[in-house]
């Protein structure tokens, strides 16, 4: 996750014991662990058309789906009625990874035959997807009749590198009946543009919905395909709050057997501090440490190559058990070389070897 306005260092801790991923009012959940089945218990299973299994954000080799940007999508149309019976507030959560800044559809609902007055509901990333807004990062557009048509999008020509970087990013879109709220990587996007249409907080009921898809939208045929990867797509028939959004963002440990109950600790280092050297390559970056507590292995994920600075882990009496420059995306540490179970301290230094942050790690 990139932050572009803050000149600070802080720690965000999400512990699954206290912040469970929300399951109430869950309409569908596609974790993509080997297939496109719905794990919500509602049976809204998808049919894969062209998309292929790929590595997810946890390193699971068959934990997400890759879309080719030309013809791939996942068809949910067999359960179209499930997506057209949502009333009140609706929230949509998903992870996406793409290297290109072009119009791409994440999710689409449509009526067949489609018309210019009753098209459907779509979620897009990329710019110029509607013809009404420009420089969009993400756009949700809804049209259920000639008079009910609205577009909400976040527009910023300077923020594009924070999404289209071929890395995983998390979105939550909340239709709370009064307005649309969009979160990117656990931060609410400011200055949402809603200058077209009305009822921006409504997730509309499309009359006679018959086409529902992931990785594409339908308008007289599939189109505007996603070129990238998609994971953990969820829809809730409720408005998620800040705690629930955070629990989805900090969810960790997906594997073939389910989800880990261990906790994740994330350290966010911000650029711009006056104590950093003018030649420093220490970039705005998220450093994720997991699992914590740990048993056999510890992972440190910097999410970005060559960010600069260094990491040191010391035991309770100050002896170093691990040191490295931050120049790789991920480190896997064999804990058998450490000095025994107990409390350790992870220290983050900038390029001048000035200590920026210290946090606790527990070895069980």
Q: What would the keywords be for this entry?
A:
364 residues, mainly beta, Jelly Rolls, Immunoglobulin-like, 2 domains, 8-stranded antiparallel beta sheet, 29 strands, elongated, disordered N terminus
The strand count comes to: 29
Secondary structure class reads mainly beta
User: What would the principal axes of the Cα set say about the shape?
Assistant: elongated
Strand content: 35-45%
Total of DSSP H or I helical runs spanning 4+ residues: 2
Unreliably modeled segments: 1-18, 254-264, 268-284
General description of the model:
With 364 residues, this protein is mostly beta strands. It has helices at residues 80-83, 242-249, and strands at 9-14, 26-30, 47-49, 52-54, 64-68, 73-75, 90-97, 104-111, 120-125, 136-143, 149-155, 169-175, 180-184, 187-188, 192-196, 209-214, 217-218, 222-223, 227-236, 254-255, 258-259, 264-269, 285-290, 297-301, 310-315, 320-325, 330-334, 342-349, 355-363. It folds into 2 domains: 20-252, Jelly Rolls; 264-363, Immunoglobulin-like. Strands 2, 4, 5, 7, 12, 13, 14 and 19 form an 8-stranded antiparallel sheet that branches. The chain has an 8-stranded antiparallel sheet with strand order 3-6-16-8-9-10-11-15. A 5-stranded antiparallel sheet has the order 1-22-23-24-27, with no helix packed on it. A hairpin with a 6-residue loop joins strand 23 (285-290) and strand 24. The two termini are 29 Å apart. Residues 1-18, 254-264 and 268-284 have low confidence and may be disordered.
């Amino acid at each position: 996750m990139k932050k572009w306005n803050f000149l600070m260092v802080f720690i965000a801790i999400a512990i699954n014991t206290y912040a469970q991923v929300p399951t109430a009012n869950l309409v569908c959940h596609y974790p993509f662990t080997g297939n496109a089945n719905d794990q919500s218990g509602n049976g809204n299973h998808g049919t894969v058309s062209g998309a292929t299994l790929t590595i997810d954000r946890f390193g699971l080799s068959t934990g997400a789906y890759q879309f080719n940007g030309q013809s791939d999508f996942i068809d949910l149309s067999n359960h179209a009625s499930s997506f057209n019976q949502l009333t009140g507030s609706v929230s949509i959560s998903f992870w996406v990874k793409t290297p290109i800044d072009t119009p791409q559809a994440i999710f689409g609902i449509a009526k067949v035959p489609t018309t210019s007055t009753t098209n459907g509901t779509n979620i897009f990333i990329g710019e110029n997807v509607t013809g009404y807004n420009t420089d969009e990062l993400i756009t949700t557009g809804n049209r259920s009749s000639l008079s009910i048509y609205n577009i909400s999008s976040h527009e910023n020509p300077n923020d594009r590198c924070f999404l289209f970087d071929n890395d995983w990013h998390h979105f939550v879109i909340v239709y709370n009946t009064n307005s649309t709220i969009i979160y990117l990587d656990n931060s609410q996007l400011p200055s949402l543009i809603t200058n077209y249409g009305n009822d921006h907080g409504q997730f509309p009921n499309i009359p006679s919905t018959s086409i529902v898809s992931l990785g594409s939208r339908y308008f007289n045929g599939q189109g505007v395909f996603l070129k990238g990867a998609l994971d953990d797509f969820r829809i809730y028939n409720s408005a998620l709050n800040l705690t629930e959004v955070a629990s989805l963002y900090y969810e960790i440990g997906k594997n073939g057997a389910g989800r880990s109950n261990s906790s994740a600790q994330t350290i966010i280092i911000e650029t711009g501090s006056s104590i950093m050297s003018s030649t420093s390559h220490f970039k705005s970056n998220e450093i994720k440490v997991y699992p914590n507590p740990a048993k056999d292995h510890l992972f440190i994920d910097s999410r970005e190559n060559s960010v600069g600075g260094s990491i040191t882990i010391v035991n309770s009496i100050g002896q170093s058990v691990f040191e490295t420059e931050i120049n790789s995306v991920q480190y896997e540490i064999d804990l058998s070389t450490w000095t025994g179970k107990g409390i350790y301290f992870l220290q983050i230094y900038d390029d001048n070897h000035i200590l920026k942050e210290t946090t606790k790690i527990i070895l069980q």
